[in-house]
Design brief:
7 helices; alpha/beta
Amino acid sequence: MSQSTMSSLPGAAGAGNAIALYARPSANFAAKLERSKQLLREAEATYSPLTQASSLGVEDMVITELIHQTGIQTRIFVLETGQLHAETVALLDTLQKHYGREVDVYRPVAADADAFVAKNGAEAMYQSLALRKECCDIRKTRPLALALAGKKGWLTGLRREQSNARAEVSEVEQQPERAKINPIVDWTWGDVWHFVQQHNIPTNPLHDQFMPSIGCAPCTRAIAVGEDFRAGRWWWEDSSKECGLHVDGGKAKVIPIKESA
Ligand code: SF4
């Protein structure tokens, strides 16, 4: 079984309760949690101005809770691609009310998105990898560049367990213009849901429908027993299941990890 396989998933049919199904902390969870908070404080001290990239997935909701608990100064942004599930859009509003803060929302240039659909159709992403990547470029990569402009660091909820493509992710990666900080990189799926349960963190109800990784509606499906966490993303492709936001072909330089105090 691969490192990223969700062996505990009961299957894609029907709905479950993600907390009841998955909340199983690691034996060393308390130490992991302290390390995550330490990383956030170090990020604030070293890489401000910071921003958090939130997909509104459960890992990113955990990062937002950790930001709230540590009190570090950072913006939070969401890429509203225009193709998100209604449940995801609703969670954006819930998050802002829950934490009493405003989230920065970045959208694609409407003329670019409209022109792409007019030329290639609303389901162009299924036709070829090139068209899918062009859609991701318009709706995600270009808005991401705007969201990151002027920032020295960005916070993500990447975990090594999520996929083979993410198995080598480090706590801190130096990219050409800024650092990417991944505070829960070694958390398990059970750790994530344990923390959600402990702190009553709002989550996307689609996670209860066996969607561990939630992106745009046309490009996300539920997964079945034995499938990887990200198997439901661009499921018709034989690709790395990435849109270019997080896996850059190894261009990032890894910063040596400091030992925990
Ligand atoms: S995930 Fe799908 S709908 Fe969203 S930007 Fe990429 S190709 Fe387009």
